[in-house]
# Entry
Amino acid sequence: MIRSALATLALASTLSFSALAAQQPPQTQTDDYTRYELQERGSGAFHIIYDVTATTAGARYFYNGIRAGAEEEVHSVTDLHSGQPLAWEVVDGAHARANGHPRASLDSRFIKVTLARPVPEGGQGRVRIDKTYWDHESYFDDGEDIVFDRSLGIRRNAVVLPLGYELVSANYPVQVETEADSRIRVSFMNPGPAGVPLRVRARPLQSGSAAVRPPSTGERVPSEGGGSPVRARVNYVVSERAFEDRDITYFLQQPQTNSFRLFHDYTESREGMDRYVNIVRAGSSASDPEAYNLDTGARLEVEQLQGAAITAKGIDIGGEADAGTEVVVIWFEPVAEGASTRLRIWETYTDPGRYVLNGDDFVWDRNFGRARNTVVLPEGWRLTANSIPGIIDEMEDGRTRIQYINPRPDGIQVFVRGHRR
# Structure
């Protein structure tokens, strides 16, 4: 009888635990970026800087899974909005399930981060986790070479070689740059739904052969030799595309309006900066602007200025404003030292040159310079053509969505055609 009672109590506790977990919304996140800094050969150690944004409204905690097979040391956790440290602890899966991460694996361990504030509705909680892993299965010696061989599920990643090593091979398309301290960095963006089985091989440099990154002057110099001079970008510094965190989403309105609603997410980290200036693209006009501080959920002051009013207000647009120049200015509290502000800017654009109704079809033909862009087709229309490869899915309301991830530092000319359903 006692055993039966205990079993009943255990079953009731399990059911109660499951019901509690089921009532909680799942943990959601965005804008993940990971930087792996490989440590000395033979150590199996890599220092990790992990930036992530919690997006579950009301969440007080964020859980970062610790990969099985690795030993970890957490150095610090930082709130990226304020630059201040956050409290953290390592917990098991049962604790995570009961306290804000209902889908946590019971077999896993997690770094539990106490957020600076509950995630605001429609807002975010931005976190940086600084840690070191020891994992000889992922980072090991192979003769004189070192190899980093690890499946990376995060979409934006960088791997930094130890000082004094050259890159021998990388099995996934990567950017390569020499950092200011002469270490080699490889980085990439993964546009697909699965993790990347990354394998990077490096070899010790001969003594005294380490590269030094040239200063970035922006100058071009002519090549030597006959023929027309070719002006190479000899001091060009490769911008790490994977680290860029700007993204934009376009919601196409009915094509006869030539209009689309968009929001643009941007992080301002320059100390003392108190404004964001959006210069409206020539041929377009902007209306209904609104902006939010995603870190706090606060709505921000917005101004639309044109021509001489831009100069009178002291707004720097990198040149002279003429009568046709139009800007949208978003004002916010000056950024403190070591802090940053994440902005979301909404606008409606009308652009009869790039978004048009052509017979029974709509045509969208626009250049995207940012790494991440999303286009949502207007309600009642189906996709019939798309020039740049993108991830295509259906939203809950039935509209078609196309996500473009461009790992290259240049723009893409996106052509989309649709037909009424």
Remarks:
- The chain has two domains: 27-204, 244-420.
